[in-house]
Amino acid sequence: MFPLARAAQSLVARGIQHTAVRQAHRKHEATFHDKYGTMVLLGGAAMFSAVWGYVFTQLKIEWGLSPVGRVTPSEWRE
User: Fold this and answer.
1) Which position has the higher pLDDT, 64 or 52?
2) Which residue from 21, 17, 14, 19 is spatially nearest to 6, judged by alpha carbons?
3) What is the DSSP letter of 76?
4) Contact indicator for 48, 42 with CB cutoff of 8 Å
C-alpha cells in the first residue's frame, strides 16, 4: 500500500506543479478590484466622513446622554 500512496502523492504534487507553472506563464488580467478598488475604497471613506461630519456639526442633535440634572424624582404616593 505504501508504494501506491507514494505514487498518488507524486501525481498530486506533479499536478500542482504543472498548474503553478501554467499560471505563472499566463498574463494576469486586471480585474475590477485591481483597476478601481483603491478609488472605490477612498470614495467610500470620503462619503462616510462627509455624512458623519454633517451629522455631527449641522443637525443640532442633543448629544447629552447623562441624565444628571434632568431626571427629577416624582412625588411619593402613599
Assistant:
1) 52
2) 14
3) P
4) no
Q: In the structure grid, which three cell numbers stand for residue 47, read together?
A: 462619503
Contacts of residue 55, defined as CB under 8 A and 6 or more positions apart, other chains included, come to 61
State the first-to-last Cα distance of the chain, in angstroms, to the nearest integer: 90
Cell of 74: 416624582
**Digit-coded pLDDT (tens) for 2-17:** 777 777 777 677 777 7
* Residues 33, 31: Cα–Cα separation, whole Å: 5
Check: CB of residue 59 under 8 Å from CB of residue 65: no
pLDDT at residue 60 above 70?
yes
Rounded to 5 degrees, φ, ψ at 17 are -65, -40
